[in-house]
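Annex B, item 7. Sequence and structure tokens for protein A, then protein B.
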Amino acid sequence: MASDVCRRVRLVVFPGFELLDLSGPLCAFNLASEFYQAAYLVEAISAHGGAVASGSGVPVHTAKVSRLTPFDTLVVVGGAAGGAIDPDADTVALIRKLAPRARRVASVCTGAFSLAAAGLLDQRSATTHWRYAAAMQRRFPNVRIDADKIFVRDGNVWTSAGITSGIDLALALIEDDFGIEMSKAVAKDMVVYHRRSGGQSQFSTLLELEPWSDRVRDALNFAREHLHEPLPVERMAAAARISARQFARLFLKETGDTPARAVERLRAEAALLRIQDGTEPIEVIARKVGFGDKDRMRRAFLRIYGQSPRALRRATTRSGAASSPPKRVHQTGTKSIGTPGR
């Protein structure tokens, strides 16, 4: 539920900042205000005010903070190597000055370097872009870096991973303020996942399989769009426009997996998002993603993630959206091609 309380959000930028680090959260907060009466007042600020050029060259007008009045949320954006991981002294000084007046402080991507330089991450858990996580740990040994998480909350300090994770962060902040239904609605408006199922190191099944031919890619895309339906090899082969026997050989050659095993992984990935995203019954999820029943889905989860759907839901409930993703278990052997479970 929205409230009449106005939450002022200040987004700190600097020369060479990453434009999407700013625009992603800005869009999320604005949608929450425009469509759901969330009463956010968002402004971009910088150490000196005026036009500040992003790393892509696009300038953004920023305000210079003249009155040290309390406000709600301070978000520091990131940028490419250089100005981001070696933040300028004026920006760090601005953060130090404003942070005590904010209810919470957050960073996007390499903005975590600015928070750390300001002393706000000492003895806290934090994350940043995976490419710079090791450098951050070396430079700031008092910060506990978790390089695989999409975002981390430690008390009133939030940090997020690379670039688009600023959207994940903003959705989590909106949920913290106004509840899960509003954050889900904003995610739907933005056409993004409400909560991503994995960390920075976890790639989707389609990316892991990495087929090089259009035929196999077309079949996988077709499967992902029709997970709730039976997907025997003949149907996937039709999507690839070749015979079933030829498709099975080509698929194994390009992906190292059978079509049935790949479909099982796609279904498990889709189910995991639903399991971590709310309270939808396990048996309903199993039907919606094409497993048919919860026992079949449970067996697949044990093979792929090493944990049952209920165990993963309990883990998500205990630790929240920033919890580590389940690691995919190495699989050996093959499974007969056809409908699930055959």
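Protein B:
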Amino acid sequence: MSVRELVVLGTASQVPTRHRNHNGYLLRWDGEGILFDPGEGTQRQMLRAGVAAHDLHRICVTHFHGDHSLGLAGVIQRINLDQVPHRITAHYPKSGRRFFERLRYATAYRETVSLTEAPVDADGPLAVTPAYTLQARRLSHPVESYGYRIIEPDGRRMLPERLAAHGIEGPDVGRIQREGSLGGVSLEEVSEVRRGQRFAFVMDTRLCDGVHALADGCDMLVIESTFLDEDARLADEHGHLTAGQAGRVAEEAGVRHLVLTHFSQRYTEPDEFERQARAAGFQGELTVAHDLMRVPVPKRR
């Protein structure tokens, strides 16, 4: 059975707290696992969350600040220690290649795994698979930063009443799906478009075109809300979003499930992030992330 869920490994911003580890997020997308922004301590958080190195197929780093990347060394070495049998691809800003290489070879270890580096240097598609297209968009932060977006191809939903009207049943349903027509009846006549799911991961950034493009029409948007609205000036100075800004972006983009994360250690009341996102107009499903939670991707429309 296919599983699509977000496993939250860490939710702190620059400084971890007693209750929040540095960043780390695993997206399970059917049979693949995509690890986003493995900050310090990610390997241990994976153990606590029941995530194995064998679950990983891609690593996507938004930028090279420590809270988003210092866990790379441990994760990469664990992948090799466990001798993961399949290829793993790492995406990261091309300007940070030297940081990735330093983390990849931070200490001596035996390389046993094929780890492919696919740096990002422009907006656009990074990978196209039968299950999804992975895209990147540039964000606005003091260092080069990219957000990531996953788009499932559109499919078709069969309509029982139209199939019945044309006398199509049993094995013939599968045949018309495979061949596109049957006895003069086209697939379009007995089905409708089933929109593919969309997921976006937006970390450290000010408001910019990239944020809106990544969020557009998403079933799930994981987005930083480092600051509360009363600290909007600080957020802009340091290249971050507030909870209200994140909520407004999600509402305008038609997001179905908003996941707020990457919280500054200055705040101790998580409910205020939800309150401010709601006050900004967001009406969909909303989760204020905490470490080790699992958040299902909404079912297809």
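Comment on protein B: The chain has ten helices and 18 strands.
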